[in-house]
Amino acid sequence: MKKLLLAISAFLFLGACSGEQDMIYRGLSMKMSCKSFVDSMSQRGFAIDSAASPDSTGRVIVMKHPAEKYHILIGQKNDTIQAIREIYKISTNDSTRRLWQQLRDGLETETGKWPNCPMLKDDHKIAKFELDGGFITITLENTYTPNLYVLYEVK
Q1: What is the 3-state secondary structure (H, E, C) of 53-74?
Q2: Which of 18-22, 42-46, 102-106, 147-151 has the lowest mean pLDDT?
Q3: How far apart are CA 29 and CA 140, in angstroms?
Q4: What global pTM score does this model have?
Q5: Which of 2-6, 82-86, 92-96, 147-151 is predicted least confidently?
Q6: Cα 107 to Cα 61: distance, rounded to the nearest angstrom
Q7: 147 alpha carbon, distance to own chain's centre
Q8: What is the 3 state secondary structure string of the chain?
Q9: What is the pLDDT of residue 56?
Q10: What is the chain's Cα-based Rg?
Q11: Which DSSP symbol is given to 33?
């Protein structure tokens, strides 16, 4: 009986200590250092595209993978990841609508949460998931050329 009470107490203590969960980006914690994150993404086949980086300060890192239909921008400050944005390159409006729905459904399943959808038109859709560690926003803008973004933000 004493061991059972000790085990229950340890479980409750562990649960109390792990109150806020890390934001996860494709299996990687967004609380890891930016250098470690970039190294992990490099091991997955992504490479830093220094020519596409929007600034010379190193606050934004662009990574691309030749086999993926998206590239990522990593926003960091003092080697701490602030946000990650996936930018998809797709040519037709119908394919971006389908991909938006697949991403939304996948995140619903993965997070177990329903998104807040402030915009749900045919050509402009937004789904925002609020998690313990941050937000994930999927944005579709089908104007003259379709744009699809997924933004992971740390609180």
Answers
A1: CCCCCCCEEEEECCCCCEEEEE
A2: 18-22
A3: 25
A4: 0.82
A5: 2-6
A6: 24
A7: 17
A8: CHHHHHHHHHHHHHHHHCCCCCCEECCEECCCEHHHHHHHHHHCCCEECHHHCCCCCCCEEEEECCCCCEEEEEEEECCEEEEEEEEECCCCHHHHHHHHHHHHHHHHHHHCCCCEEEEECCCEEEEEEECCCEEEEEEEEECCCEEEEEEEEEC
A9: 60
A10: 19
A11: B
CA diameter of the chain? 69
**How far is the C-alpha of 144 from the C-alpha of 24, rounded, in Å?**
33
Residues 61-65 have a mean pLDDT of 94
Question: What is the residue type of 39?
Answer: D
Element (H, E) at 153: strand 146-154
